[in-house]
Amino acid sequence: MEQPLLAFNDKGIYCAQADVYLDPWKPVKKAIISHGHADHSRWGHSKYITHHSNIPIIKHRLGEINATGKEWNETFLVNGVKFSLHPAGHILGSSQIRAEYKGEVWVFTGDYKTEDDGVAVPYEPVKCDTFITECTFGLPAFKWMPQNQVFDDINSWWQQNREDDRTSILFGYSLGKAQRLLKHLDSSIGKIYTHGAIENMTAVTRQLIDFPETTLITRETKKEEIRGNIVLAPPSAHGSPWIRKMVPYVTASASGWMTFRGARRRRAIDKGFVLSDHCDWQGLLTSIKETGCEKVICTHGYTDIFSRYLREQGYDARTEETQYEGETGQLESENEKESA
């Protein structure tokens, strides 16, 4: 049996012809990296290839690595295999990875979303024969509202808390979600304060995007200064000693999981805003259709349910085990859990 262009093994997604891995989870000689989240860009590879805008992000997280940057749609050959990177719309610097050999085309999405968030380069469909897709939110229950409605709700929530003389604490992952929130917060309401992890990551991404002004919370920051304003913090800060200086405060989380009320209760969050950097059910289906693919491989999320539905629609769909974790896997790395 002829070996597929891309195969899954215990290290990651492997292209044997090129001797290259895509988003490997164990150290390898050469890795093409889709984006900077910790479950997709790991430490220990000898050489990293990624979009040039992702290089400062992964260097911030991983240190001085051997990294080469590519432009969108730039073709680079590795032992006869044509690779190129295409916008995934997930977070800043996020790419789909296209691989072509002897007329056969595969696309690996990494993580992606189809709504233009005003921060990441918007997703572009790429024609292919085989499409490797996440399905983090691969259930019909997940249906996102337009983000302008969500941000109207977030800013109204902040305004009401300010009128009630309470601090608004909004939780979001330090890479991706935090910058999206920051870009759309209405700074006319008050000041935007940040946890150290978010401030540090945003400082890295300011070279790419114009963000509103933020103020880092330090040990010298007085509770009275913060009151009535908004604080952006990573989920790891919830329940930590760091948060006590915000009293009286109201908490909220921005996540696709806020679709389910039980998720908010389990996390002891006062308010949930449904805002995800991944596709919803319809976004996944539309993206797959636009590729014109015949084969679909589902890698993380509701893989069994989603692949079964795709087979019912006529696709040759299957699942593969990976160590990608979607929105549950964008945890703060150890050096980002610091208190500010």
From TrEMBL:
It comes from the Bacteria. The keyword Transcription does not apply. Keywords: Exonuclease, Hydrolase, Ligase, Nuclease. One of its GO terms (molecular function) is RNA endonuclease activity. Its EC number is 3.1.-.-. The keyword tRNA-binding does not apply. Gene3D superfamilies: Ribonuclease Z/Hydroxyacylglutathione hydrolase-like. Residues 319-340 are annotated as: Disordered. InterPro entries: MBL, RibonucZ/Hydroxyglut_hydro, Xnuc_lig_assoc. It is an enzyme of class 3 (hydrolase). NCBIfam families: Xnuc_lig_assoc. This is Ligase-associated DNA damage response exonuclease. The lineage of its organism: Bacteria, Pseudomonadati, Bacteroidota, Flavobacteriia, Flavobacteriales.
